[in-house]
Amino acid sequence: MPNRPPRAAARSGAALVCALGVTLLALATAGCEDDTAASGRRQPATRADMAADSDGGKTLRLGEPTSVTYKRGSDHMRGALRVTAVSVRKGTHAELRTAGAEPSDVRTTQPYYVTMTFENIGENSLHYPFLNTPTGLEDTSGVDDQPLITGDTEVAACPGKDPDDFAVGAKISLCKVFLVPNGIRPSVVTYSTGDDTKRPVGWKVAR
Fold first, then answer.
1. Which of 55, 61, 95, 121 qualifies as a cystine partner to 66, CB 3.0-4.6 A?
2. pLDDT of residue 167
3. Is the sign of the CA dihedral 152, 65, 45, 26 positive or negative?
4. Angstrom distance (rounded) from CA 100 to CA 4
5. What's the CA gap between 54 and 63, in Å, rounded?
6. What is the mean pLDDT of residues 52-75?
7. Which of 199, 198, 150 lies closest to 174 in space, CA to CA?
8. Are 82 and 70 in contact (CB under 8 A)?
């Protein structure tokens, strides 16, 4: 009997220490959560971050816009674009000939004009952005068709000159000429830049 009170006191002391430990741990955890939340509030998502959550890898309808991350590898220029494949239509070799841009394989190909619209939804102006360069066209055989490289030559029916500067909020419509083998039709317009180069967004071309 004389030994029981000390044991009870020891158990009570141990319980008190454990309770204090749990309380301190809870306070420390809450402090970490508060710090994390505060850190998140101090670093809001930018438009470029939101653009990374684009429709890369998906196939959309012609005329349906999507956001993409813009990134130029040479100088790590970065931004955010809203891109739309607007139309795909047949061109003529006569129009290319008038512009001085007729290809050598005139008898085996059919020119198609792909029109795209671009809007700078990022936070920076883009200098020499080459907006239209990543535009591609896949045909019904699953092959990437060849674009007609015109240099400084402008095809009147398919104007595609990039702006030297693309300011925040600016919008522009650009056209690109592709040469599709005779007997084959365009299937999907593609666009890939920045972090989505291996997962281009696509727009289905109606038959």
1. 55
2. 97
3. negative
4. 107
5. 16
6. 77
7. 150
8. no
Q: 36-52: buried (b, 16+ CB within 10 Å) or exposed (e) per residue?
A: eeeeeeeeeeebbeebb
pTM: 0.71
| Nearest-angstrom CA–CA distance, 197 and 57 | 10
* Residue 205 contacts residue 189 (beta carbons within 8 Å): yes
**Residue 6 main-chain phi, psi, to 5 deg:** -60, -40
Whole-angstrom distance, CA of residue 148 vs CA of residue 93: 12
The mean predicted confidence, pLDDT, of the chain is 76
Q: Amino acid letter at 146?
A: Q
Q: How confident is the model at residue 1 (pLDDT cuts 50, 70, 90)?
A: very low
Q: How far is CA 60 from CA 85, 114, 150, 193, 202, in A?
A: 9, 15, 28, 17, 6
For 84, residues 6+ apart whose C-beta sits below 8 A from its C-beta are: 63, 64, 65, 66, 116, 117
Q: Which residue has the tokens 């055989």?
A: 141
Is residue 198 helix, strand or coil? coil
User: Is residue 25 within 8 Å of residue 101, measured between CB atoms?
Assistant: no
DSSP 8-state class, residue 194: G
Q: Are 173 and 116 in contact (CB under 8 A)?
A: yes
- For 48, the token pair is 């470029």
Tokens of 145: 């068709």
Query: For the chain, first and last CA: distance in Å?
Result: 97
Residue spans of alpha helices (H) in the chain: 4-42, 47-51, 93-98
